[in-house]
Design brief:
Blueprint: H1 14-26, E1 32-36, E2 42-45, H2 47-53, H3 57-60, H4 65-69, E3 70-71, H5 86-91, E4 95-103, E5 109-120, E6 126-133, H6 151-169, H7 174-185, E7 192-198, E8 204-213, E9 216-219, E10 225-226, H8 237-242, E11 248-250, H9 262-274, E12 278-285, E13 290-298, H10 310-344, E14 355-361, E15 372-378, E16 384-391, H11 396-415, H12 420-434, E17 440-449, E18 455-462, E19 468-470, E20 476-478, E21 483-484, E22 498-502, E23 507-511, H13 523-536, H14 542-553, E24 562-568
Parallel strand pairs: 18-21
Antiparallel strand pairs: 1-2, 1-6, 3-4, 4-5, 5-6, 7-8, 7-13, 8-9, 8-10, 11-12, 12-13, 14-24, 15-16, 16-17, 17-18, 18-22, 19-20, 19-23, 23-24
Helix pairs in contact: 6-7, 6-10, 7-10, 11-12, 13-14
C-alpha cells in the first residue's frame, strides 16, 4: 500500500477473526479486493484477489501491500513517492486509476485497474478497501472477451459495487443504510430511487421516494407510507419483485391498464407523480428472505433502462439486502438485550426526605447484556439500602450472575441486622458456593436520617470505584474509606466499614466503571473528569444533573455498559 516507510505488520490475536469476517464481506464484490489497515498492511483479501495475485490469504495478510505488490511498468520496485495510491490513501478519500502494476506470487507482472475507498474495519479502526481488475488476465474456462468490451466500463461497475459494499456494510442502522443507498445510486444511475420494504409483520411500507437533481435531493414524503398487500399471483413488475420472483423493467404504460391489485394502483400514482418514463425494479433479498424491492427511475432527459442494466441493479439490491438484514438483526438483538436488562434492574423506591434517580446505559454492542447493576430498597429498621455493582463479563451469564448477586444481597441485608461490611462478607461466601460468578465488585451502603437535616451514610466497598460526594457549593470529593478487595477472591479477609455525613443540598453519586474508563486514558483521568463535571452541575435539578453528567463524562469510545445511582439531600 502506501503506508510509512517502516510499518508494523498486522499481527495479534484479532487478525484471524477480523480477516475471516472481512473476507466474507469482500467475496460479494466479484473482483480482486483486499483491505488494509491504517499502516497499509493487508488485513483481509477475497478469493478473487488470491487467484489474480497467485498468493494465498496467508501470503497476503500481515504484509505491507505496497512493498509486497506495487511495481513499476518494467517490474521494478515502485518508490512510494511515485505511487498513485499514496495521496488518496493518506487523505482517506476514494480514487481510481486505469493502469498500474502488481506483481504476482510467481513474479509475473500483472497490469491492473484499481479503485480505493475508505472502509470501516470495525470498532475504532479505519481501513481502506482496494478493488482491482486485471483486464489481461484470462482464467481457464473463461469466455474470450468481445472485441468491443470496455475495461474502463467494467471498472466503473466494479467501483460502484465496491463502494456500495463498503458504504452499506459499515453501518448497522437501517435508516442510515437507506440514506447511503440513495446517495450511491442517484443521480449516478437514475434520477429517482424508490425503496419498498416488507416489515416484520409482512406489511409493505414505501420507505424512500427521492428525486436527485445534481447535488439536490428532494424527498417525496407524500408518496411514502403504507402500501397494499402483496398479490400472490400478479405478473406486474413490483409485485413480482416483492415476492422475490425476478427483476424487470417498467414504464408508465406498464400500469395503464386495469389494475390487478392495490399495488398496481399505487404504481400508476407513482409514475404520474414523478414523471419517470423508465424504471428498473429488483428484489431486495437477504440470505433468509425477501426484504423489499428497489426501484430506480429515469426522467425524460435520460435514455431508458434496458435489460443490460438489470444485473448491476440486482447486484446493488442484493448488497442492500444483506446490509438491511444485518441492521435489522442488530436492532432486534439490541432491543431484546435492552428489554432483558431493564427487566433485571429494579424500580427505585420512594424515600421520604431524599431525592433519588438511577440510569442504565447498555453497551454499544447489542450482543453485550451487561453485568452492571444498581439497587435501592428499604430495610426493616427504616433505613434505606443502596448498592451498585459490576459482575465480570458481558454476556447472558454475566446478566444472570448479576441478578443472583443482587437478589442475595437484598436477602442478607433485609434479614441480617449487621453493618454493611458483614453483609458483603456473607455475600462473598455465598458467591463462592452457590453461583457461577467468578468475580464482581460492589458498593453496599445504608443511609438514615441524622441531626440538623443531615443524613448518615455507612458503606463498604468491594473493589469498586469510590462514591463521589458533591456539596451544594460544588465541592466534590471521593469517599475512599471502607475500600476492600473485590468479591470472589476467596481470601476470607474482614471488610472495613466507613461513615460520612450527607449535608443538606449535597449529592451522592454511585456509578460503575463504564462511566470513567476509556481506551488510552488512565483511571485517574476518568475520575478527575467525573469530579470536574459533577462539581459544575451541582446546582442542576437531580434528573438533569444525572443526564448531563452521563452525556459529558461517558467516554465517546465507551464499549461498556454504565449503571448510575444519584441521591440528593434536599436543602434544609
Amino acid at each position: 500500500m502506501t503506508g510509512p516507510e517502516h510499518t508494523e505488520s498486522f499481527h495479534g490475536p484479532s487478525v484471524p477473526t477480523a480477516s475471516v469476517v472481512l473476507a466474507g464481506t469482500l467475496e460479494a464484490i466479484g473482483a480482486g479486493a483486499y483491505v488494509v489497515n491504517e499502516q497499509g498492511c493487508i488485513v483481509a483479501a477475497n478469493t478473487r484477489a488470491e487467484q489474480l495475485l497467485g498468493r494465498s490469504a496467508d501470503d497476503l495478510i500481515g504484509h505491507d501491500a505496497h512493498d509486497l505488490l506495487h511495481r513499476g511498468p518494467q517490474g521494478q520496485p515502485l518508490p512510494r513517492t511515485q505511487c498513485a495510491m499514496r495521496q488518496p490513501f493518506h487523505a482517506g478519500r476514494t480514487a481510481q486509476a486505469d493502469e498500474a502494476y502488481f506483481v504476482s506470487g510467481d513474479g509475473t507482472l500483472l497490469r491492473i485497474s484499481w479503485l480505493i475507498t475508505p472502509y470501516d474495519v470495525g470498532g475504532r479502526h479505519a481501513g481502506t478497501l482496494v478493488v482491482f481488475h486485471a483486464p489481461d488476465h484470462q482464467e481457464l474456462g473463461d469466455p474470450q472477451p468481445e472485441p468491443a468490451a470496455q475495461p474502463l466500463s467494467e471498472l466503473h461497475r466494479l467501483a460502484l459495487l465496491a463502494e456500495t459494499t463498503a458504504q452499506l456494510t459499515s453501518t448497522l442502522d437501517v435508516d442510515e443504510a437507506l440514506r447511503r443507498l440513495v446517495r450511491l445510486v442517484v443521480p449516478r444511475l437514475a434520477d429517482w430511487i424508490v425503496v419498498d420494504l416488507i416489515t416484520e409483520r409482512d406489511e409493505v411500507w414505501r420507505s424512500v421516494v427521492v428525486h436527485a437533481e445534481g447535488d439536490t435531493y428532494t424527498h417525496r414524503e407524500d408518496l411514502q407510507g403504507p402500501m397494499p398487500p402483496i398479490p400472490e399471483e400478479s405478473p406486474m413488475p413490483l409485485s413480482r419483485a416483492l415476492r422475490g420472483v425476478a427483476s424487470d423493467l417498467a414504464g408508465p404504460r406498464t400500469y395503464q391498464g386495469s389494475p390487478d391489485s392495490g399495488i398496481a394502483v399505487e404504481q400508476r400514482r407513482l409514475f404520474e407523480a414523478t414523471g419517470m418514463h423508465s424504471a428498473a425494479i429488483a428484489p431486495i433479498r437477504s440470505t433468509r428472505a425477501v426484504l423489499g424491492a428497489l426501484t430506480l427511475g429515469r426522467d425524460e432527459n435520460r435514455s431508458a433502462f434496458t435489460p443490460v442494466d438489470l444485473p448491476l441493479i440486482e447486484d446493488i439490491a442484493r448488497r442492500a439486502g444483506l446490509a438491511l438484514d444485518n441492521a435489522r438483526l442488530y436492532q432486534r438483538q439490541r432491543k431484546v438485550a435492552e428489554t432483558m436488562q431493564n427487566h433485571l434492574l429494579p424500580q427505585m423506591p420512594g424515600v421520604a426526605g431524599l431525592e433519588m434517580t438511577v440510569r442504565y446505559l447498555p453497551a454499544p454492542d447489542a450482543s453485550q447484556v451487561g453485568g452492571d447493576w444498581y439497587d435501592a430498597f428499604p430495610l426493616a429498621d427504616e433505613s434505606t439500602a443502596l448498592a451498585v455493582g459490576d459482575v465480570v463479563g458481558h454476556d447472558l451469564e454475566a446478566a444472570a450472575g448479576m441478578a443472583q448477586v443482587r437478589n442475595m444481597l437484598r436477602a442478607y441485608a433485609w434479614s441480617q441486622h449487621e453493618p454493611p461490611s458483614r453483609i458483603v462478607e456473607r455475600l462473598d461466601e455465598a458467591i463462592q458456593h452457590i453461583t457461577d460468578v467468578t468475580m464482581a465488585t460492589t458498593i453496599f451502603a445504608r443511609v438514615e436520617p441524622a441531626d440538623d437535616g443531615q443524613w448518615k451514610l455507612s458503606w463498604t466497598n468491594a473493589g469498586h470505584p469510590p462514591p463521589l460526594l458533591i456539596s451544594r457549593d460544588g465541592l466534590a470529593r471521593y469517599l475512599t474509606d471502607g475500600h476492600g478487595i473485590l468479591l470472589g477472591t476467596q481470601t476470607g479477609t474482614r471488610r472495613p466499614d466507613a461513615t460520612a455525613l450527607l449535608p443538606p443540598g449535597s449529592t451522592l453519586v454511585l456509578y460503575t466503571d463504564g462511566l470513567i474508563e476509556a481506551p488510552r486514558h488512565t483511571l485517574d483521568e476518568g475520575l478527575s473528569r467525573l469530579r470536574q463535571h459533577a462539581a459544575a452541575l451541582a446546582h442542576r435539578p437531580l434528573a438533569l444533573f444525572t443526564d448531563e453528567l452521563l452525556r459529558r463524562v461517558r467516554p465517546a469510545g465507551n464499549d461498556d455498559d454504565v449503571a448510575l445511582l444519584a441521591l440528593r439531600v434536599p436543602e434544609a
